[in-house]
């Protein structure tokens, strides 16, 4: 039977920052630490994609035509589809390409200092996401395309030199530098076989204001997150992030060894949280709040000429019935995360057969993982250790017959490896449920405490890997938990309710 894995003794979790109302420079994630060398490191930040998806969520949700028409005038227009030929065949539903560029000309010196945004821009795309809204407006699929993806770009005119280039290989994010939005769209269509209907290009200037206008966005993390380059510093637990802290969260790539791939998953969690906040806070149905948020968002957006009032209204009507479970997030299946290419360097090579299946699902207007999209049941709390790895012995600490078996079965139902033989305790009538554990297995104990909120944690040196739960009179139910490292769907797919806070 599996047993908990021992872990080095870690410090007790710090309390989460206060909820709401913090200024941009306050809180543990304010990024106001010292170290000029770190400030000069140029992080590859992905905040712009969140602003782009905000347009989808906040675009028109039930607000009148006249209001949306007024907001439309704030959008900077571009034409990425000009003179495009030999495009993929269109399908059902709507496909949007969300592009975040590396521009930073509107950042104030104070913001550069506070959020570690030093360095020169590369005039390239930092983040690329493909969003598919189904024809029946029942779900949205968001696919992250790694910025360093190996790509074959078609013939094009270099915007800087004016020279015409023959088709040649490069990293996906470099297509913007050579050919702007037009070459970026053509390259993505060539890679995916998906016809792009609309293009949204965003920066992060309005991102912080958007989050603050929403009142902050709640993020849950099972483990502490710290990135010296961005200043991100979050304890495990729930956090209401203001705009500046949210910016640090979505652009951090030195939290773990996963680099950009881990950052993409954190961006997906943030988008799910953003959808949850927007659809549950009433902003889509409140004309005053809607206009405040939408006007902030749209001032930071560049969009194709066809993305106008009617398209925003259509998206808004679709979003009125949305919830986090209506959205699903996936990453392109990869074959090699360090694929060397002469003259380019290390690139990310896609797993062609699996990627083809993913994009075929988008072309066919199908959910990427229909079983997960429709799955019932309560949302589980994300935890750092899979409950299947945690061995538990349950005791009944009260005179209530059958309580031990009830607790044992409930813990087993959410994944814990219980002994299935609950015992009677010797503590008489225990008022509060008790978890005793060896300090070498403190991470496992904290996971068990997440499933038994309010339980007392007590260290017992030498107890070993078996955790002991003595059920008290306060026991009501076991809260479902899930491991963050739990395997996702075929395309690394998760639904919004799986990654947003429960």
What does this 3D model show about the protein?
This protein has 502 residues and is an alpha/beta fold. 31% of the residues lie in helices and 23% in strands. It contains 15 helices and 26 strands. The chain is elongated and about 85 Å long. The model is unreliable at 1-63 and 373-377 (pLDDT under 50).
Entry summary:
The chain is built from 15 helices and 26 strands. Helix 13 links the parallel strand 19 and strand 20.
Helix/strand-derived category reads alpha/beta
Model regions low in confidence, pLDDT < 50 over at least 5 residues:
1-63, 373-377
Distance between the ends: 30 Å
Mean pLDDT reading: 77
Largest sheet: 8 strands, mixed
Which features characterize this protein?
6-stranded mixed sheet, 15 helices, 502 residues, alpha/beta
Topology:
Elements: H1 36-40, H2 47-58, H3 65-72, E1 76-78, E2 94-101, H4 109-114, E3 125-133, E4 140-145, E5 150-153, E6 156-157, E7 164-165, E8 168-171, H5 175-192, E9 198-202, H6 205-214, E10 217-221, E11 225-227, E12 232-234, E13 237-241, H7 243-251, H8 259-280, H9 287-298, E14 301-304, H10 309-319, E15 327-331, E16 334-341, E17 345-350, H11 352-363, H12 370-373, E18 381-383, E19 391-396, H13 403-413, E20 417-418, E21 423-424, E22 434-437, H14 442-451, E23 456-459, E24 467-471, E25 481-483, E26 494-495, H15 496-499
Parallel strand pairs: 1-14, 2-9, 4-15, 18-25, 19-20, 19-21, 19-24, 22-23
Antiparallel strand pairs: 2-3, 3-4, 5-8, 6-7, 9-14, 10-13, 11-12, 15-26, 16-17, 22-24
